[in-house]
Amino acid sequence: MGSLNYFFETIGYSKQALHQMLDRRYWWNEEIEYLIPIIQQVRKDHPTLSCRALYYKINPARIGRDKFEKLCKDFGFAASVFHSRKRTTNSSGVIRFENLLDGLVLTAINQAWASDITYFEIKNCFYYITFILDCFSRLILGYSVSSRLTTEQTTLPALKQAILFRKKSGILPEGIILHSDGGGQYYDKVFIALTNQYNFKNSMCEYAYQNGKAERVNGIIKNNYLRFKTITTIKELCYYVDQSVLLYNEDRPHKSLKYVEPLKFEEMSLN
Q: Do 257 and 159 share a domain, yes or no?
């Protein structure tokens, strides 16, 4: 114990100060992973928007304007055209999982689920929609609408809803692959605790196209349903997302499913 105290004194930190420094570093890395997928989406929609305008558009809760602008520049989002994002590695607890979907051929439901977070803008305010779908049937199993990018408002409630949906049907096997992008919400400790509880196999892609099924669902709900509605409040957004998911699951034929609706396709595959 004396040698540890001597070590902390030598480097100029008390034990408490060192832990606080490490906590701040972990928090910063986590915040970066929360924000990057959303910045990437906004940059695609607005390729010439300045970093400062991006800041006021996204309005992040836990990072100031100057740090946000530096983050954009460090990760290559300041350019008018975004090519590939810079990645960093660190020893502060940030996790990346292997891409378990690479080369996998799906033959049934509940072999793999995919998830992604997208944004929706109302009166210059950003809201976030998280979807979780079955990769085989394309059925949306869980989703959430939130005003913040925290795990507790995005991926956690969406996954809880997906689990409940499957449990009600009596089909929730162990070992389901849960695939996502590298967003921090997918390796947050409370999210990982839930996936461990139900023995999911966490999987992450390196590039957006490797999470194509989830990204296509984002586009369908936003561009084929929500964009045709007059939405002025988050309450209205929640209502129309509920309505859109119902239509998508039960009334929309999918070419990849031989023009069968996802819910009907699942029923057919189970029978």
A: yes
On whether residue 167 sits in a domain, the answer given is yes
Count of structural domains, the chain: 2
The residue whose two tokens read 């890395």 is 29
Both structure tokens of 6: 């001597």
To which residue do tokens 């055209």 refer?
81
Domain closes at, from 74, 101, 134: 74
The DSSP line for 2-26 is: HHHHHHHHHTT--HHHHHHHHHHHH
Domain that holds residue 51: 2-74
- Residues with Cβ within 8 Å of residue 139, at least 6 apart in sequence: 109, 133, 249, 262, 263, 265, 266
Which pTM value belongs to this model? 0.75
Same domain, 152 and 246: yes
CATH classification of the domain holding 223: 3.30.420.10
* Secondary structure (3-state) at 177: strand
Q: Which residues pair with 117 in a beta bridge?
A: 130
Are residues 111 and 136 in contact, defined by beta-carbon separation less than 8 angstroms?
Answer: yes
What is the Cα–Cα distance from 240 to 9, expressed in whole angstroms?
Answer: 58
83 domain residue, yes or no:
no
pLDDT in tens, the chain (271 residues): 545 454 445 555 566 665 565 555 555 667 777 788 888 888 877 777 788 888 877 878 778 888 888 888 888 887 544 343 433 333 344 567 999 999 999 999 999 999 999 999 998 888 999 999 999 999 999 999 999 989 999 999 999 999 999 999 899 999 999 999 888 899 899 999 999 999 999 999 987 778 999 999 999 999 999 999 999 999 999 999 999 999 999 999 998 999 999 999 999 998 8
